[in-house]
Amino acid sequence: MDHQKPSTSSPYDWIPLRRRENDFSRRTSLTDYLLIVEGERFFVNIGFLAQHSPFFKDLHINALDMDVYELENVKFEEFHEFLLFLYPNRKPIEATNIDILMRLAHRFQTIEIVNEVSGFILRTASRSDADLVECVRMADRHHLKHVVLIIVGNIQDPQILMNLRKIKDLSLSTKYDVYRRLRALEDEDEDEPKTRINDAEASKPKKSRFN
């Protein structure tokens, strides 16, 4: 006896599923849109995504007569990670998923992710010198100029700045920021002896004008 496929309302119902830890692969009462990424199904609430991303807001407004959209040039695993961060009970930011989140944050203009990643990098930079150096590289790689300026501007050890200048994959802009901070510290060191001399002069007892 031949087995027939059950009737389906959408040709995408027969796209194979990969096992995932959430329910994006299943339609629920709260989902109203189907996104296709590398042939995989993601059932989402397009209104919710529109609140976090101008890209999906435009999709929501301009595709009112559609309920399926295929995202091109996006990797399945990366988009899954992206959704895990946006949805309630979100997955925390970690050093291992920052590259993925920032890549898609730029693609979908999700400023919330950019802000969260910026905060994570700033907090991590204060843990150790090694973390600080890696955080400068990370902020530079993802064009987080404001984060680079904050981290570099708070470095007090010239040796750390010298080590940063030796990193080949830093952008010229960040290397210039490091150079400026190094010069600022050198200027402070040059001014310090003058300040001590002036303080010493000020502390000397002054001769009376009547002597």
TrEMBL record:
Gene3D superfamilies: Potassium Channel Kv1.1, Chain A
Segments of this protein annotated with the region Disordered: 187-211
Record-annotated BTB domain positions: 31-95
One Pfam family matching this protein: BTB
Domain of life, source organism: Eukaryota
Biased composition annotated in UniProt, kind: Basic and acidic residues: 193-204
Protein name: BTB domain-containing protein
Species the sequence originates in: Steinernema hermaphroditum
Organism phylogeny: Eukaryota, Metazoa, Ecdysozoa, Nematoda, Chromadorea
